[in-house]
Specification:
With 181 residues, this protein is mostly beta strands. The protein contains two helices and twelve strands. Strands 2-6-7-5-4 form a five-stranded mixed β-sheet.
Length: 181
């Protein structure tokens, strides 16, 4: 989760070499490997202090400095995909972080509130999926060996293991904020 504060930079949507937005703005938050095959550019929408961990654009795409990317690659090599991006003034310093695992582990009973899409909502494409999740809790017995993942049905959440959280904190990675799930 990004720690948004005044004075920090704000990054825009990732763009193709031709300057176009991606067709699927959730390309990097689906819990699956990305199919992007060419280097992307991430524009700086608002100047400010650079962060080691931040999100870009409407899709809340995680963008990490090489220091953070190295930790993720070393500690969770089977759970992440790192895609180099160009950011003005930061040559070869940042990468998009893609959690490549989607885990069905939300604990409905332990979570504060969960709502599902129902037939009367007239969204057949979302029927049976989470409509909202407040105070999310997960069932750790369903996580297996995943250290970085998205939660099935509510993939806007990036979950990291306690050891990765601790490593990011020890490395003084800026921009990351954590909430126990």
């Amino acid at each position: 989760m990004e720690n948004v504060q005044a004075g920090n930079w704000y990054l825009g949507d990732p763009l193709t070499k031709q300057g176009h937005e991606l067709e699927n703005f959730r390309e990097f938050s689906s819990g699956r490997p990305s199919q992007v095959s060419s280097r992307l550019t991430v524009p700086i929408d608002e100047s400010g202090r650079r962060l080691d961990f931040c999100t870009a654009g409407a899709g809340a795409t995680p963008v990490v400095h090489i220091r953070a990317a190295t930790l993720f690659a070393e500690m969770a090599p089977n759970d992440v995909q790192l895609i180099p991006v160009d950011i003005n003034g930061c040559p070869d310093e940042y990468l998009i972080l893609v959690a490549t695992r989607l885990v069905r582990c939300i604990d409905d009973e332990a979570s504060e509130e969960v709502l599902y899409w129902k037939p009367e909502d007239e969204r057949p494409d979302k029927l049976g999926m989470y409509r909202s999740v407040f105070g999310m809790r997960i069932d750790p017995t369903k996580v297996g060996d995943a250290k970085v993942f998205r939660t099935w049905g509510w993939s806007g959440v990036l979950v990291v293991s306690e050891d990765i959280k601790a490593a990011l904190e020890r490395a003084n990675i800026t921009g990351a904020a954590f909430e126990e799930v």
